Amino acid sequence: MSDANLTVVYDGECPFCSNYVRLMALRRSVGTVALVDARAGGPLVEDLAQRGYDLDNGMVVRHGRSLYYGPDALVLLSTLSEDRGAIGRVLSRLLRSPTRARLLYPAMKLGRRATLALLGRGLIARPDPGLPR
Predict the structure, then answer these.
(1) What is the pTM of this model?
(2) Residue spans per domain, the chain
(3) Are the beta carbons of 61 and 67 closer than 8 angstroms?
(4) Which one Pfam family would you cite for this protein (predicted)?
């Protein structure tokens, strides 16, 4: 996948996703971080799709040999992040709880889809058109 200590695969055209990843001060906590825009495609995105990860329904984070998806990815990123600004602190503390992350995640996905629609942006193209949306 990547030689980085942490790899985050997210929707680079989603303002919420991009800002969240930027707000979490990860490099100081984990070292090398690879940020991968799922819309760019490539071998990593294709591999994740083949493994069954729907990148329109959640980001994927690889930390060590483990993969974290959706709310679990948010919990991990929030746990690994350092406090950075008021909004970053609030998000980090709010999403460190697996229960809160799971409760909030459906609303976050809905907000993402509505924002993408308002901005005239489509969903992430799938490497394998045979996978269900």
Answers:
(1) 0.78
(2) 6-118
(3) yes
(4) DCC1-like
